[in-house]
Amino acid sequence: MSSVPPSGPKPPTATKPQSRSEDRETEARRTGPPVPMVLLLISIILLGWLWSQAAAIGTRVDYSFFWDQLTKQDNVKDVKIVNTTITGSWKNPPSNPDEATKARMPTLTPEFNTEMPVVPEDRDLIPELRRRNIKFDARTARPSVFVEAFAYSLPLLLVFGIIMWMMRRSSDPMSSGGMFGGFIRSPAKRFKPSDQKTTFDDVAGMENAKRELQEVVEFLKDPAKFQRLGAQIPKGVLLMGPPGTGKTLVARAVAGEAGVPFFSINGSEFIQMFVGVGASRVRDMFRAAKEQSPCILFIDEIDAVGRIRGGGIGGGHDEREQTLNQILSEMDGFNQSEAVIVIAATNRPDVLDPALLRPGRFDRHVTVDRPTREGRLGILKVHVRKVPLAENVDLERVAGSTIGFSGADLRNLVNEAALNATREGKTAVDRHDFEIAKDRIVMGAKREEILDDYEREMTAYHEAGHALIGWYTPEVDPVHKVTIVPRGRSLGVTEFQPEEDRYHIGERRLHAQLRIAMGGRAAEKLVFNEYSAGAEQDLKQATSIARKMVGRWGMSESVGPVAFVDAEENPFLGKEMHDQRHFSEKTAFAIDQEIQRFLSDAQESAIQLLREHRTELDKVSEALLKSEILDREALTLLIGPPKTRKYAPDKVVTVSPDQPVHT
Question: Is the entire prediction scored with pTM above 0.70?
Answer without folding.
Answer: no
